[in-house]
Amino acid sequence: MAKAKLTFEDIGQSVNVPAGIRVIEVSEKVGAGIIYGCREGDCGTCMMHVTEGWNNLTEPSVLEEKVLRENMASRHNRLACQAQVIGDCSVKPA
Amino acid sequence: MTCPNPSSATQPGTGATPVAIADGVHWIGALDPMLRRFDLILRTANGTTYNAYAVRGSSGVAVVDTVKAEFADTFFARLEQVARYEEIRVIVLNHLEPDHSGALPELMRRAPQAKLVISTRAPAMLKALLKADGQEIRYETVDTGDEIDLGDRRLRFLHTPYLHWPDTQCTYLLEQQVLFSGDVFGCHHCDPRLFNDRVGDFRFAFEYYYAHIMRPFKTHVREALALIEPLPLAVIAPTHGPILRERPRRYVARYRALSGADASLEPVPADAEPLRTLLVFYLSAYGSTARMAEAIAAGAEAVPGIRVSLYDLEGGETGPFVDLIEAADAIALGSPTINGDAVKPLWDLLSSLTVVSLRGKVGAAFGSYGWSGEAVGMIEDRLRGLKLRVPVAGLRLKLIPTDGELDDCRDFGRALAQAVTGAGAAGSEAGDTAAKPVIDFADLA
């Protein structure tokens, strides 16, 4: 299975993950500082900033785009409960 | 105590008669004068109303919101006096909470040709509300600026998310300048006289409702006001409480004032360095946790760019402390451990923070203990549960602090202040970040 390196900058931890995994599935296990609310892409709590490898996450859905807009997301922000890792990238809490 | 007399013929909201609020627009809601607590969290001294409205256009009728399920009969009785079911073209739900969507399934059965109109954030909630009923409902989603034509009049939609659910929208009737505002500008105040110029003083209910329902979403309130303020307003028709027809703009202005970014009365000099605020709250039975608090505050205060304030929780009421926390950047909470737990005034504070936004704030916990010392960990868990960031591991000391332990407290305060200001290391957990080896996902527990 294809692997990717996902780095959580706030705790300085990188994890080799199977491609396709959602950030939420890794961040909670490794104890990164991204916090979660509804866990289903609705509340915007888990907004994260993608510092590297923006293109190595799946495209946001229409609904995620909307939630990002409503929560005043800046450029390269994503929802950690929605974004799936498809290549190396680094993230931190927004 | 007296309750509004539901049989009085002099009051427009009594009996089961609809009440005209503008040309072709009727109130068809329900009064619930005996309710004493709403949604478990709000006290309602004279009950509430569930306001719903019917708008007649030349090509059909729109129903805007419904009522709580128990009040469906009254709602339908009023509706039937202003429209036949086959005339209903559109049903608008500004917000899907059950007190406004309770009569929807039955209304859709009676008016199956009607199109349900909800905000773009509402479909998932609609599905969850109707799943037990098994009813399939056709709906259309609308966003800010979308319009529905009723022939000689138009409904325009304003998406106002988080006021107070993610799905919330307002609906504006252009020709009559009526804003169906959902829960925005509403309050739990039941008076069959219905209109703000007839019900007497209901400020306490308006302010109380804002403080508990809208206050956690101040940023979103300001965004919604930016959409609402440019509109000409003849009437604001909310889903709870009086209909605001006499100087409605006063209520918009009040929301603007209440949603201000900073309620502090102190002027900030133009050339002042921006200061981050750390509040240290503590409880102390024998003075040990108090001494820790003082040392933590002193350590934090030594970091440039931070202003630290120290409060004994025993010396104040919860409400003003919540106000302080709303405006602060960080809080440190200290409690001794008594019988394996933090002490009640601290939990009282921590259970009162849901009315303010805590997004982006930093939290920390500390305390002296006798033999077990669980309080610090429990406070940290609660802080994380409230979605605060807890970048510095909590500090516990056994009984009376030594001078060396007070030095640890000062270090703790310094690390916390640095995490808040972004100076130096981001906190004790992040000190050795570069050296951590890459781990494999399969090895994570």
CATH superfamily of chain A: Beta-grasp domain
CATH class of chain A: Alpha Beta
| Biggest β-sheet strands, sense, barrel of chain A | 5 strands, mixed
CATH superfamily of the largest domain in chain B: Ribonuclease Z/Hydroxyacylglutathione hydrolase-like
Helix content of chain A: 10-25%
Q: How many DSSP-defined strands of chain B?
A: 22
Query: Quick one: how many beta strands of chain A?
Result: 5
CATH topology of chain A: Ubiquitin-like (UB roll)
Given the C-alpha coordinates, what overall shape of chain B results?
elongated
CATH architecture of chain A: Roll
Helix content of chain B: 25-40%
Q: Looking at the chains present, what oligomeric state does this protein adopt? A: heterodimer
Q: Supply Rg of chain B.
A: 27 Å
Mean of all residue-level pLDDT scores of chain B: 90
Cofactor (chain B): FMN
Family (chain B): In the N-terminal section; belongs to the zinc metallo-hydrolase group 3 family.
InterPro entries (chain B): Flavodoxin/NO_synth, Flavodoxin_CS, Flavoprotein-like_sf, Metallo-B-lactamas, ODP_dom, RibonucZ/Hydroxyglut_hydro, Rubredoxin-O_OxRdtase
Pfam families (chain B): Flavodoxin_1 (PF00258), ODP (PF19583)
Q: How would you portray this structure in words?
A:
The complex is a heterodimer of chains A (94) and B (445). Chain A is an alpha+beta fold and 94 residues long. Chain A is 18% helix and 28% strand. Chain A has one domain (3-93): Beta-grasp domain (Ubiquitin-like (UB roll)), CATH 3.10.20.30. Chain A has helices at 23-30, 62-70; strands spanning 3-8, 13-18, 47-52, 77-79, 89-93. In chain A, β1 and β2 (13-18) form a beta hairpin. Chain B folds into two domains: 19-258, 4-Layer Sandwich (Metallo-beta-lactamase, Chain A); 276-420, Flavodoxin domain (Rossmann fold). Mean pLDDT of chain B is 90; it is low at 1-9 and 425-434. Chain B is elongated. Chain B has helices spanning 72-82, 98-101, 104-110, 123-130, 203-214, 218-228, 249-258, 288-301, 318-327, 344-350, 375-385, 403-421, and strands at 19-22, 25-27, 30-32, 37-38, 42-43, 48-50, 53-57, 60-64, 88-92, 115-119, 139-142, 147-149, 154-159, 169-173, 178-182, 235-238, 276-282, 306-312, 330-334, 362-369, 395-398, 439-440. Classes of the chains: A alpha+beta (94), B alpha/beta (445). Chains A and B meet through β2 and α1 of A and β22 of B. β2 of chain A pairs parallel with β22 (439-440) of chain B, so a sheet runs across the interface.
